[in-house]
Amino acid sequence: MSLRLSTIVSCISVVLASSVTSKGFIPFPHHQFDSRSWNSQNPSCSGSPLNYVVLPSLGKGLGVFAVRALEVGDIVMQEAPALLVHPPPFRQGMGYNVTEVGIRARAAFEELSEDAQAEIMSLTAYYRPAEARLPGFDLLKAIFSSNAYNTGADLGLFPKIARINHSCRPNAGYSWNAAIGKRVVYASRKIGEGEEITVSYIPLLLSVSERQKRLDPYGFKCGCDACAAEESARKAGDRRRRDIRDAFNQLERESISDLVNDKAGNKKAQQLARQSAKLAHLVEEEQLPDYYAKASRLAAIFHARIQDWEQATRWAQKSYELRRMADAESKETKEMHALTNNLIASWNNEGAKP
Ligand SMILES: [Zn+2]
């Protein structure tokens, strides 16, 4: 048993990077004018082959809306970068040299067709009005800085994905899929026909006021369900997000610490398993799908430690499915696949014992 368990623990002790990403290496505002809502023009009548349509979103400029009902894991859109820039070296604490990035973006932009250039130039950029009056101001640089994502070792601009608005309870996740060379947006929970697709621009385990501060540079006040709720609900949400953050920190630390096989150690292992299941439920209660896979993975690890193979396998499978949804070929997905198989084997062995 100890051998098998150590194999499992060594397999799962790799600390997986969170899939949560932030948008733009300089923030930008999406939300600049009020206009018609979704209800004023329903694109489902148009028979669009796409799962989404870009339309004005009340109070938020343009937004992306589901043309049909989407199930968890359905692809909303996948987009190759319209502009791909190999950045200069990243300077710790200072980021990229924005001027140099701008020069490289301009060079790549000049190679594009007029239509592609026009699509890029229609995107929103964030900059202070005074900046626009400075000699050498380059709107393309501002657009690129505001909307580009880390894309492998490069920076990529995705004009369609750039239209998706932010929510602190997003219904979609997104990630760069190196195998297909596209950024993929998928439904992280059920999305109704006509519902606005949202992703998160910022890390979400923050209080309402901390989140608003992080969103300030994007030029809008978030009015999502979590931010616009009445005060008592907002405070409850703040508490849950703080508890989730603390629990992740503690359980990540514990997940790479050695097992102590004595009475106190076993008691602690039982307690950690309960905590990990509670964390997974808290994340669901606060509707933070970006963190489901991470929480489920921890629950798998801690249930494996107490040799509750059924629960461990259930959590591992869940984490694997969520990782696969984001990117079937990623390192994280493959690791969860291996872990799930190990746990199933352990469960089978357990059942085979006399
Ligand atoms: Zn919000």
The 3D shape can be described as: globular
Helix content: 40-55%
CATH superfamily of the largest domain: SET domain
Mean pLDDT rating: 83
Number of alpha- plus pi-helical segments: 12
- CATH topology call of the largest domain: Beta-clip-like
The major β-sheet equals: 4 strands, mixed
Oligomerization state: single chain
CATH top-level class of the largest domain:
Mainly Beta
How many domains? 2
Radius of gyration: 22 Å
| Spans of at least 5 consecutive residues with low confidence | 1-21, 25-46
User: Strand fraction band?
Assistant: 5-15%
Order of strands, main sheet, comes to 1-2-10-7
Q: What is the element string, with H for helices and E for strands?
A: HEEEEHHHHEEEEEEHHHHHHH
Per DSSP E runs of 2 or more residues, the count of β-strands stands at 10
Going by CATH, the architecture of the largest domain would be: Beta Complex
Q: How far apart are the termini? A: 15 Å
The computed structural class is alpha+beta
What are the distinct ligands in this entry? zinc ion
InterPro entries: SET_dom, SET_dom_sf, SET_domain_protein, TPR-like_helical_dom_sf
Pfam families: SET
Organism: Lojkania enalia
Keywords: Signal
